[in-house]
Structures are given as structure tokens and as C-alpha cells.
Records
---
Amino acid sequence: MSDPEDFTRHNARMKRLQTARAKIQARKTEERGLLIVHTGNGKGKSSSAFGMAIRSLGWGMKVGVVQYVKGNWETGEKNFFIANPSLLTFEVMGEGFTWDTQDRARDIAAARAAWERSKELILDPAYDFIILDELNIVLRNDTLPIEEIVEFLKARPLEKHICITGRGAKAELLEIADLVTEFTEVKHPYHAGFKAQKGVEF
């Protein structure tokens, strides 16, 4: 571990790697807003999106969040952003999961209202980053037509980032996205009898 020759070889390898990486980075010249999709059965899709929101705020960017499903749930992020309204626009517009509402017409009306508000934020030039939290669930349930959403997103203003979360993202959305991450569950305490933990899951 302390052999000077090992250090010399390591330093030479890192120098070659640095040079190679710089050449790769020099070829990456495109810059525009990204359409980002977080999907999969693993935990952390919304949490990762909120992490990007904080990163954007750190750069002085204006952020908007529309939540499609969580409805009247009390969550840590909802408590935080409502207590700090100057940080970003945070709007909870969902009515809850379909098995809780048990009202298809109500689900469709809530999703439509949330989508109309989402379009307003996306088209507002003041905003730099928009999160459409759990929109994938609404689309998976065919509560909103995927064709309409895809058509709008393809024609979206390209100067801002949009992140869509939720399991079960449709193929049509994945096709037009710039960045797709599938969150995979390896192990979850729920299967061992744990209830959802405050600060971890909500």
C-alpha cells in the first residue's frame, strides 16, 4: 500500500484517465432542458426528484411541483414546502389513490385539473424546473390520455427541465424522454411487516 512505485503507476493511470475524460467532455456541447422520467417499483422516485429540486434552488432556479396522487396525505415534503412558500411552487392536486376515492369521475376531474395546472407552469417562462409527481400513475390508469400528454411534451419549451415520477411509465413517454431511470427494489421493510416510516417514505 505504501510502495512508491505503486503510487507512481497509479498517478500515471489517473493522468491518462483525466486526459481521456477531458476529450469525452469536450464533445458534449448540447445544452437544453431535459425531459426526465423516474419509474420502476423501487422506492425513491419522488425523493430523487425533490433532490433535483433542491439542487436547482441552489442555482437560483425557479421550481414548480404538481402532485397528482398523494392528495390529503400529510408528507414531510408537503409540510416543508408549505412552511416555506418562498422556496418553490408546491401544489397538491390529487385526490388520493383510486382505491381510496372509489370514484372514477372524480379521479378524472382531479387529474385534468392537475394537468391543466402543469401546462400553465411548463409554459410560464419564469419557471426553470417542473416536477410532475406521480403523473405516471395517472397515465397508467388511463385517467388522462397518454397521446395528449406526449403531444404537449414534444412541443414543450426546451429551456426548462421537467421530471415525471411514478411507477409504470408508459412506453410512449419513455420514447420521448431524454433521461429515464428505473428504480429497482432489492429489499423493502414493508415485506418484513414494517409500516411506512415517517421521514423515509412520507
---
Amino acid sequence: MACPDWPLCQGTLLPPLHVDVWMEFLHRVIAAVAATSLFLLARRRIVAYQGLQKGIPLAAMGLIALEILLGGIVVVMGLPVQITTVHFMIGLAIFLLVLYMAVCDGTTSPATVSVSGYAGLLFCVLLLVFFQASLGAYLRHSAAGLACPDFPTCQGRLIPEIWDRPIATNFTHRLVALGTLCTALVLYLVSLLDQRLKRMHGYLLALLCLVALQIGVGAAVVKTGLSYPITSLHLAMTLGIIGTTLRIWMLQTGEAGRSR
């Protein structure tokens, strides 16, 4: 709330020189640059994509418009938890759509989507990571990040005795992280045996290592009492994990298309 008004910042277009104020102000500037860049990319993909594929860049443009609107609402309403979390989720969806459009240009790399076979399983993993990231955003914005102030236990127990909303959300966040790690491990082991995933072996190993490291960073977030630098690293690694998962799904989608 360093800039408590919108679209101005402290009543002016150019706010005073203060670290917190300029962090918020630059967030808005970057959003404007990103929206412009996305519009240019989406316009090219609308021309290149065929049929229903055109819905991908159109969805991206619609989401960025909604994201900007929600950004203003978040500020005006004083950071309400639910809207702030949705704001984060839409931003993550835009991130995924931009990555997709950056890889699939519609000519040399066709825009294809598949949810059959391993591609479908990998898409479910993508949704799982998206859900996990959304839980993390909710924890952060609802001030429930330290509802379980210890790790790997929660309030001194493997299964907490008290189940109010902050503790239940925090514990669920940890369980989903463990489930994501186990899923990544199983997929990696399957890639050693099944030819359909053999080409994804290196990517799946990278995904497994990222998820394991992310859990370690998550533990550091708790141990340091939500240290800002470590929490920022936790978010950056989330983007790396979800981006890597998207890439593996896209590669497997291409494999499924060639096999047909």
C-alpha cells in the first residue's frame, strides 16, 4: 500500500523518491510494459494461429485487461485477501499463456493441445502446481504463512491438533508440495522405463530437482519468519517449476501429435 491510490501514486504521476513507493510504482510501470508487449505478441499469434487456436491470444489479452482492473481494485480496497489471491492467479495464468505463445509461433512450431496419455497426466501436474502456487499466495496475503511456525512438523506435531482455516490451509500447502514431489519422482522413474517419456528424461530430472529444492526454500521461509528475500526466491522458483512443467507438457503434446 505504498501507493494507496490508483491510477496515481500518492496523488501524482511521479511519486517521491522512497524505496517502498518506487517498488510499487515500478510494479505498475512493468505491468504497463508487459501489457503492451503482450498485446503485440498476441496480435501476431492471432494472425498465425488457426481456428480455435486463436482463442489462446484472445484469452491472454482478456486476462491482462482483467488483471489491470483487479490491480486497481486491490489497491483501492486495501489488499483484500481473496481478490489479491485471484490477482496473483490471473498473473500466473498470463505467464503460462505468454510462455506458450513464445514457443508456439503457429508456423514452425504449431499451436497444439493434448490431454491424452502422458500429455494428460502432465497437464494435471501443471494444474497441481498452479493450485499449489495459489495456496501459497493465499497464505502470504492472509498472514497465515506462519500458522505452522516449525518445519517439517506443524506446531510440534506431524498432524496438527487444531484445524482452523490458517492451519488447515498451511498444512494443505505442505501436503500438496509433498504430492508434487512424489509425482515428479514417479514421472522421472517412468521416463527411465517407458519410451514415450524417454525424451523427457532430462526435463523431468530438472523438474524433480526444482521441486525438491523448492521444498527446502519453503522450509527456509518458515524458519526465517517469512524473510522477504527468501520468500521472493520461493516465488521465483515457483515460476521456474510451473514453466518447466508447461514445457514438458508441450513437448509431450508434440510427441503425441507426431505419433498420430
---
Amino acid sequence: MRRVVAPVAGAAAIPVALMTVVTLRWSALHWGATTEECREQLPGDDLISDPGLVATRAITIHAPPEQVWPWVVQLGADRGGFYSYDRLENLAGCGVRSADTVVEEWQHLDVGDLVHLHPKVALSVASVDPVRSLVLHAGPAMAGTGGAPPGSLPYDFTWSFVLRRHPHRATRLVVRERFAYTHPWSFLLVEPVAAASSAMSRQMLHGIRDRSERAFAVTIPDLILRQGALR
């Protein structure tokens, strides 16, 4: 009997393990996002028509978009950092130091500006709509700063940050990554990158939330005083 049960149990464990891996991967790629947010068209989606991998993550922040945007717009290794695991990023030589304050000189981005992930790797600003959305595009910028000719990169990439006004003076921050495979083997590189990005992005969303909510909490007494003075 045991000789029969053991192979059957082993065979049954294979699809269970595969289902677990698929479920964990889906959760990592869609952390915090609703089904509607995963399906909807976001700014920057038009830059890559046929992505090989898409990750959409989101978080609710109890502060208005005007309080969240300053933290988003100053993202960058040479700017406000990424509010994630600085020590891990710096093991790769990123030189990141996440800011705990809003810095005025980092509050302005124009299309074509570079946002660095690493001293030798940058994303270009594809579009910027203050307090609403920021779209970064990897392909052209990475080719230019890395010295590689266009088309030789293993993947194209867009990174979109979309802010939505939420009830009760809150913000819904939706972040999307889209990867386009430029070579048959690109997925071998993208999958590990996406797995690492999952953990880093989740911490980044928490970092933006915590900083925005702290800053907003400081302004609440001032708002109350102003409202009282107007009455």
C-alpha cells in the first residue's frame, strides 16, 4: 500500500507546488492593487504596446495628493532616494540616501530629464502631470547613460506613478512597471528583476505613505487654525 501511496502523493504535490508558485508570483506583481486597477489603462501604457510582464501595485495614503506628490517627484538615486532598503541598494553601488524631508530643488521635473537608479543607469521622464502622474522610461535613457547602442538592451521598461484623490482627504497611489522583451532570453533577466522589484516597491510604497502622512499630520493644526480664522 505504501508503495502505491508514495508515488501518488508525490505526483499530487507537483501541481500544488506549481499553483503555490503561480499564486505567490501573482500576489507579488499585484500587491495592494484592486482588479480594476490592474486592468485599467494608466499613463505610460502606450509606450510599450506588447509587454512581456506587467506589475501593478497600490497603496492608500491618508493625505491628499498635494502632500504625496512632493515625495514622488523627488525620487532618484541622486535626489530623494527611493524610500526603500537603502543598504541593499547601496550594495550595488547605487549611492542612495532616502530623504525624510521634501527638498525644493528636487521638486521640478521636465520631459527628457533623467532620474538615476544608479550612477550609470538612468530613466528618462516620459511625461509629468504634477500632482497626478509621473512616467519614467528606461530604454532610451539606459542606452544613453550606459553607453550601449539602442536595441542592444535586454528589455524596455516603463515605470508609472499615478495619484488619485480618495475619499476623506486620502490618496490612492498606483505604481505600474511594464517590461518589453527585446530578445528571446530577456525573460530570464526580467523575472529576477521583477522579483527583487516586488520587495523594493512594497517598501517604497510604505515609505512614501509614512512620509506623506507624517507631513500631513504636521499641517493639520495649521489648517484648523486657518479655517477658524476664516469663520
---
Amino acid sequence: MRRALLALVLVTSACTVPGTAVPVGGNLALVDASRTGAALDAVRVAAEAVFSYDSGNAGAFDQAVAANVTAAAKDQLTTLFEQVRKSAQPVRLVTRVRQAAALEFTGDRVRDLAVLEQVNGTSKGLAAVALTAVRESGRWRLSDVAVNPAQPGPAPQPDDGSPGGVRDSALAGARAAAAGLFTTDSGDPEGSYARAEAVAAGPLLDDYRTKKATYVEAIRKSGTKVALGPDPMAGVIALTGGRASVLFFTNLQVTDAAGEVTSRPFTTELDVVREGAGWKATAVRPVTVS
């Protein structure tokens, strides 16, 4: 990511607040597709407004915050934008939501995983953000903002064939596939490859098998161990029968040869397909700047 006066890049101490699990059967994300979509649209508009900033018109930022966030989220945004507002250089930060997936929707509360792309002049950056919004007097307002989030998901619904059950089964499958695909150990390249192959299907599996030698050698030469961070986050973007597209985020934990561990934000889209009682990945699309 290029260096830029990006609010989400400058501040890495995310205001991460664990999600509140909703009762089984209470999560309507994608189950009520129309209202879920309307809520996500409202959150997108609010996020693009409050994560943009023009130093030549700072008052517009204050107005956007006042109109689109609650008091708690206002404090979070004030912290996130503190360094940007103090910059001696002109800043014109334009933000758009690249992708978003609802994690929870209960009618008057929505939590989503969003990928924000920010542009400041010729510099661009991406950040994954968990956004919680509440509906007050018919208007959606952001109530919590967490950058590079690590939050537990809502209580899953039983895999009983219901829309919510299929959604949560797909999410569990996507998390398992991500663990197999993105967890590697340079000391065991063959085992790392085998774990990835075991969770792949369709075009992705064909690609792995065709390029096995290349993948194994790349893992061997990396000199690292890579593991998923705690509470990786996932939300279904689209679900049709036994196929789903999932937005996935985790802070990868990368251990080098000296034992030093670094955390690397990683966002990707996964296509998964149901095979028997489980799910396997058919495509991986890392989310990068446009």
C-alpha cells in the first residue's frame, strides 16, 4: 500500500468492539434480502461521507459526522482523523466502499464488513472496516467503527436447509477453506499444499494441481509460517443454492525465520460450493486497489 494521508492507514489501533451475538433465528442478513440491501446502501452512503475529508472545507466533514454517526462513533472518527486534520499539507481524501457484506441484520441494527478504498491525490489505500449502524427515527447512523477488525460472528443458525442455516453453513465452510488455503509453513511445504488442495474444488483445484511444484517451492522459499489471526471475519455477498460468494478478512500472523511475528491485514473474496455436508473453495480473488 502506498504511503498516503489515509485515515485508515495512519491509525492502526482499531476501535475493535466484539460483536453482540443475536439470538438463533434473529439474524436476517440475506434472509430478508430487500431490507438487508437497503441497510447496506444506507451504511455505504454514511461511510463514504464520514471517511472522506477535504482540508479546504473541514466544516463539511464535521457536518457529515454530525448527520451520520452516533456520539460513540463520533469519538472513534475524531481519533482516526486526528493526524489527517493536523497535516500541514493539503488533503483531499475521497473514499468509496469497494465491497460490503452484511454480518448481522436485525431490522434496526446492522453490522457489516466493508472494504474502503481511499484516494488522496495520486495515492491510494485499502482498509477493511467493521461498521455497525442503528436506525433511529427512520435514519441509519454509524454507531461503531473498527479498522482491521477481529470480531466474533453472531451465533450460527442450524444447518437445517433454512436460508439462515445455509448462509451460516457457507460462512463456516469459507472460514475452513481460508484456513486451508492461507495457512502455510515453509518447514512443511508439502503438508501446506495438501491442506490447500483438500479445501479446493473446481477451477481452483485444477489450478493448484497444475501448479503444484510452483506452489510447494514458493512456500519452501518463503521462510515463514503464516496463520490466520483470531476471529477472522466473513460475510456472504451472494448466495444461490449450493454456491456462495464470501467477503473474508483476517490479520494474517506471519512468523519469520527469527521467530518475529508481524500482523498483515488480508482481504479476499472466496467463491465456495457445497460438496456433501461441507463446502470447498472454487475461486480466490484478493481485494486490491483499483
